[in-house]
């Protein structure tokens, strides 16, 4: 287990180079309260700074990845309060984690839960997964990035449908829309995510972080700027020991021994 105790999370290292963060508010279907999100950010920061960890898996329970934000916490807030204190800003800290984060989703990923999954780098889902932005049903809209990230990954019309109707999308539909990587039909979605994280952890950590950085840049830059940025990061990896080892191992037809330098 992790050395840091959490009230609403379970943390572990289920495989070499892999950390697992499990949301643990079962009675509330892992509703994302402010204290829970503070713990998510703390755990992610802890593993991001742990040299033994190369990839992170984030999951919930079989019944719910996270069934939304904590409505009871938000109900009585005022505009002045949420505006002055920039409510939900700290949710975006997850996107600052430099190591790859894989979401393993079962059950409900609604509202903030859907937004949390969309902040991750890769989403694997069990056949039971249901994604949705039902905020319209309670008189608001997504506030943790849902409208923006959905529009980028599924397009305007589908994002509009989800945001304006609150309809839940099945795992199969989410896969078809390109919202998730794939549906895991055989075995546990968490085990599959740990396997994928193990594969990533077996690579050179520098090139993995560089790969995450350039893919994310594609959402921020024009094509020409993105191509230039990718090329410069590619060039920079030629200053690493892992590039020399990787290419030498390929030429010598042996597995590489990356030192993450």
From TrEMBL:
It is an enzyme of class 4 (lyase). One of its GO terms (molecular function) is enoyl-CoA hydratase activity. Its EC number is 4.2.1.17. GO terms for cellular component: mitochondrion. One of its GO terms (biological process) is fatty acid beta-oxidation. Keywords: Fatty acid metabolism, Lipid metabolism, Lyase. Belongs to the enoyl-CoA hydratase/isomerase family. PANTHER family: ENOYL-COA HYDRATASE, MITOCHONDRIAL, ENOYL-COA HYDRATASE-RELATED. This is Probable enoyl-CoA hydratase, mitochondrial. It comes from Cylindrobasidium torrendii FP15055 ss-10.
